[in-house]
Amino acid sequence: MRRFLLARLARAVPAAWGIISIIFLLSRSLSATQTVSEELQSSIAGHTATPKQIRTTERLIRRRLGLDLPLFYVTPAAQSTSGALAWRWQWQGFQNQYHRWLLGVLRGDLGYSFRDGRPVTTQLRLALGATLPLTAAAFLVTSVLARWLTLFLANHRGLRTALLSALHVLHALPLFVIALLLLLLLANPDALSWFPAYGLADFGDNTSWSIQVLQYLHHLALPLFSLVLVSLPSLVVQLDYALARELQADYVVTARAKGLPQRLVVRHHALRNALLPAITYLTDLLPALVAGAVVVELIFALPGMGRLLAEAAAARDFPILLGAVLLIAGTRLGAQILADWLYYQADPRIRLEV
Amino acid sequence: MKQLSRYVSLVWLLVLLLLSVCAEILPLPYAPDTPDLDAIAAAPFSGAHWLGTDSAGRDVLAGLIFGARTALLISLPATIVSALLGTFLGSIAGYWGNQRLRLSAVVMVTLGLLGLAVAVLNASLGVYLSIGAVAFGGLVVVRRISGKLSTTHPVPLDAAVLLLIALLTAIPRLVLVLALAAVQPPSAPMLLITLALIYWPSTAQLARAEMQRIRQLPYMEAARALGLRDWQLILRHALPAVWKVVGAALPLSVATLIGLETTLSFLGVGLPPQTASWGRTLASARQEPTAWWLIVMPGTVLVCTMLALRQLALTSIKKEKRGE
């Protein structure tokens, strides 16, 4: 068992490192000039500057953003020899952007935001604090509700067609339409104003903690509903399909033949096998827990991870983007290993193969 | 019943296609982008605007028709490009795997140097073409000479394609689009290319799995035993089967891409603000919370389109399964 996990880690960690390195180098090399020139324009806007002043400002900006060092250990340098351009690889030593960034990552320091100079780790932590309760709750509610709905569908044949068609229609709606519908139906002073339309609760000092928790839940309800409604249909449809296939298997006939009631056959025999494919589906959702839900967070104005990422992407704030991508890629690798481990635990046939 | 729903969805999609093709010549009373300042957020079925206007006084009916055009113009080409790219990369990865494509070291070094030159040099197209011609000539010569001299090494094609997929999927799709949209000014061709580049991995995974399956089948072995070349095997014997699977999933790709396009327009990224889109009409519902028609009309059109596309995909996938 431990060997299995170690082998998976030994394969996964270099892959993650490679991916993150490539993203770092690509984003830095493609965007550095543009970022610096934008900063330069905003800092000399409205002033008349001599070329020398401009050069000095640019150097200062590059130093402040950490873009003054060479990008990698070796960089190509242009040399004009006898009129023609020739390229030569130049060894830059350890004083380069990549080396510094990597050391920082190993120490748990992801650098500083280009936009406001705050440390990336603090911003990511704050955003995660707002996002994780929402996405984790959505994840839990979805999986519990999906299991319940699948059982309900299996036990109530008469409602099947109606419920499945409703799920298909729901599945066809993009997330933003669902969120918008909920917002305009349930948080609209002109319709029903049951829920607050945006933001998280702002607590006064003298409110007791129980009221604070209630307010918090009240604010999270609509985003939670929309996330659950958008991920529930595909999960239920998939589970239902798997369950229907399992119910045709021979062991189900045996179970019925020995006199078990249908309810127990479904619950104890078929459902367990039908849940196997759902492992992949659920572990695939795990990275989204960390990545947040961009659309929902933008519509309901929640200060979460998705919004942080969207704003950083729009402002080309690469330290934040890289930090978040590092986090998401790490979670994805963890989720894949978790999925393998769960399969390993759940299905004896796989255990024999390893 | 199944046949009926298939016909209904086909008819709906055809009507949508027709409307969007002749959007320019239709006798619409209003243009999609000229605000009618006398009728701001006018209710539908009452005045001159049949389906009402939004918070800026833009006609909803014209917005829907031109929005359909935008959705189809973006999603159909993006689907085709991403399907072609994904099928190509996925099937070469599935066919050759990590071990089976063997090139001699000389060829690999030449190709690597060529790639490096393209990456490092910022030269014009002519220089690239001449480098490519020289490299190709060299390749042919080297192949003739080195047939017996040099040993061959396996090219990890499968690992390379998987790495590329992992790179693209490491970042959430929407964030990647936002980041790319921030670098380029918003325009329809840019959005199309971005979506195609982002969406190909799912097709590639499909094509890769199918190619891995097909490559083991007896008929492929027989064809190989007949002495057919690799490209003949891939093009004539494997790709038609791969394309069936990829083609069955095409309507789903179109649906996903329409969803992405409307989401982006709703958020106000990717397309310039004067381009009509269902997402833009839906976004205007936020400024006018009482205007139910701003969410019901585009929402209904969107849901019908998505359902029709899903229905098509469902029937074609079922047909595919029955065929086996």
UniProtKB/TrEMBL annotation, chain A:
Record bears the keyword Transmembrane helix: yes
PROSITE patterns named among the record's database cross-references: ABC_TM1
Keywords: Cell membrane, Membrane, Transmembrane, Transmembrane helix, Transport
Residues covered by the ABC transmembrane type-1 domain: 128-339
Localisation: Cell membrane
Chief place of localization: membrane
Protein's UniProt keywords contain Mitochondrion: no
SUPFAM superfamilies: MetI-like
Pfam families assigned: BPD_transp_1
InterPro entries membership: MetI-like, MetI-like_sf
Its membrane topology: Multi-pass membrane protein
Positions of transmembrane segments: 126-150, 162-187, 216-237, 274-300, 320-344
Protein origin, superkingdom: Bacteria
PANTHER family: DIPEPTIDE TRANSPORT SYSTEM PERMEASE PROTEIN DPPB-RELATED (PTHR43163)
Family: Belongs to the binding-protein-dependent transport system permease family.
UniProt name for this protein: ABC transporter permease
Originating organism: Hymenobacter nitidus
Lineage: Bacteria, Pseudomonadati, Bacteroidota, Cytophagia, Cytophagales
